[in-house]
Structures are given as C-alpha cells and as structure tokens.
Write a structure and sequence with these properties.
The protein is α/β, with parallel strands linked by helices. Helices cover 59% and strands 10% of the residues. The chain has helices at 4-59, 96-108, 121-129, 147-162, 201-206, 227-312; strands at residues 81-86, 114-119, 136-138, 168-175, 183-190.
C-alpha cells in the first residue's frame, strides 16, 4: 500500500492537471464565442451574394457558366479532382480529427487522379505519414480562420479550375450545426448544380421587397458586360464565403470537441481525486491505529516491567 505522502502527492498532481483542463475548457469556449461573432458579421453579405446568383438564373434562363453543370445535366466529370480537407492544428479534441481524415480517405479512394489540399497541421502529419502526396498545406489557418485566408484558398482553387487542371472540387469539414451535433460533411464545391440556387417559395414572396429595402426590378434587365461575366464574378465571392464558413464551422466543432474532452477529463479527475482521498483516509486511519497499538503495547510492556521490578523487592 502506498504511504500517505505518495497518495497526497498523487492527489496534488491530479488537481494541477485539472487546473490545466479547466483552463483549456475556458479558452476553447472563449475562442468559439469570438469566431461565431465574426461569422455573424459577414454571413448576411454572402447570403445576399447567393440570392443575387439565384435571381440571375431566374432572370436569364439560358445563362451558361463553367462553374455550373449544363442545364438539366449532372453527369460525371472526367479529369483531376481536388479535395480540400480541414483538420485541426492540435489534438486533445476527441475523435474530431480522426473522423474528418476517415471520411476524406474513403472519398479519395474512389478517384485516382486527385490533388490534396490540407488545412491544419494534424492532417498534414497524417497524410505525410501515409505517404499520400499533398499539393498544398495551408499552415496556421485552422487556428485562425479569417476571410483573407479563405480568399487565399478560394483563389488558388479557382485558378486551378479555370486553367482546367482540376475538374471538380470537394471540401471535407466538420459541420457545427448550431452546436447541436458536429458531423463530418462532404460538399462538392465546384461545379454547382443550378437547382442549388433555385429560389424558395419564401424568397419568391420576398423578392419584390428585400428586407434591406431594395426592390428587385421587373422586366428586362441588362447585365454589363453580360450575364455570364456578372455570374462568374459573383462565384468567386460566393466560394470564398463557403470556405470561410467551413473554416469557422470546423474551428467551432474543434473547440466544442475539445471542451467536451476537457469536461470529461475534469469528471475523471474528480472521480480519481475522490478515490485517492478515500485511499488516503484509509491509509491515515491505518497509520493512526498502528500508532495507537504501538503506544498501547509499549505502555503494557512498561507496566509489566515495573510490576516485575516491584515483585523482586
């Protein structure tokens, strides 16, 4: 059985670790709150871009764009596919990283001609260890998702797409889903389906008068220089918004997973401290009992010795 000093040291060690896990929980909570606030500021702009794209399709029925499947077609595209995989820079977040990597690996086995783009140090280390070629690693982006970095990723992917070096783009990330449940999501970034931009019934009802006071014009609309270029210009901003949203969702999911992991670690620490405290009390009680027994035995021995001395007299 361990002595009291060892048990007391173990309890203190667990408490010191618990202070760290508590701090990590609070840090993750604060980070998630800040980045969600930043996303809420930019979200209306990208929602308006998406709505404008939908209105172009409604106004110009036959508009064509390389960023969309031809009207009525969603055929399989030949060529090289690009995969943007978003992971974290660190561990200690439960199964967050493993789930993303598992889904990405399963998806990429279906295609031989592929280019891999990785956000996050964890994903870079994993794919490197498996000797899977990485076209580009975006360092430090996972821990600091910003519009500028989302635009950097978007521009790179769009340049490759425009140069016909890739024919389809997938993004694999963790969807936060308002904090209810984080799930790995696979999204085809390009090309889009026209049906993705179909105006809903509610949007059709609100088309006449926007919530921002803008009235969408009726009748013939002239686009400069033409509808196709207007549409293509919007796509760049729209894709930046999607990537930024995916980065923020992944970051929030990572912080949420880390908060859950730290909360679980705190519970385990409390249980361990409780068990060690019981063990410490038992050991202390045993030591006290032993000390009392030794004192009593000494007293009895001394008494007997005194009685023998008196008997000799």
């Amino acid at each position: 059985m361990s002595n009291m000093k060892e048990i007391k040291g173990h309890i203190q060690s667990v408490r010191d670790t618990q202070k760290i896990t508590n701090a990590m929980y609070l840090i993750s909570s604060n980070k998630m709150r800040k980045i969600k606030k930043e996303l809420d500021k930019t979200k209306p702009y990208f929602e308006e871009v998406a709505l404008s794209i939908r209105r172009i399709f409604k106004t110009v029925k036959n508009v064509q764009s390389d960023y969309f499947y031809p009207a009525g077609n969603t055929y399989e595209i030949e060529g090289t596919y690009a995969y943007l995989v978003i992971t974290a820079d660190k561990g200690l977040a439960g199964a967050y990283n493993q789930n993303v990597i598992k889904e990405a690996s399963k998806l990429m086995t279906k295609k031989h001609d592929k280019l891999l783009f990785v956000v996050g140090e964890y994903g870079r280390r994993y794919f490197t260890s498996k000797n899977i070629p990485i076209e580009k690693t975006f360092l430090y982006t996972a821990q600091n998702p910003t519009l500028a970095r989302a635009r950097e990723i978007s521009n790179l992917l769009l340049d490759l797409y425009d140069d016909k070096k890739i024919s389809k783009i997938y993004i694999i990330f963790t969807d936060y889903e308002s904090g209810m449940e984080a799930k790995v999501k696979v999204m085809r970034l390009l090309p889009f389906n026209r049906s993705d931009f179909k105006l809903s019934k509610k949007e059709l009802e609100e088309e006449q008068k926007s919530t921002r006071g803008f009235v969408w014009p009726q009748g013939d609309i002239e686009f400069y220089p033409n509808a196709r270029e207007a549409l293509d210009n919007m796509i760049s901003s729209y894709i930046t918004g999607i990537i930024y949203g995916a980065l923020v969702d992944s970051f929030c999911s990572e912080q949420s997973a880390r908060m859950n992991a730290m909360e679980s670690a705190n519970r385990n620490a409390e249980e361990l401290i409780e068990k060690l405290t019981v063990q410490y009390n038992h050991t202390r009680q045993a030591a006290i009992t032993q000390e009392i027994t030794e004192v009593s035995a000494g007293a009895r021995a001394k008494k007997k010795k005194k009685e023998k001395a008196l008997a000799r007299q």
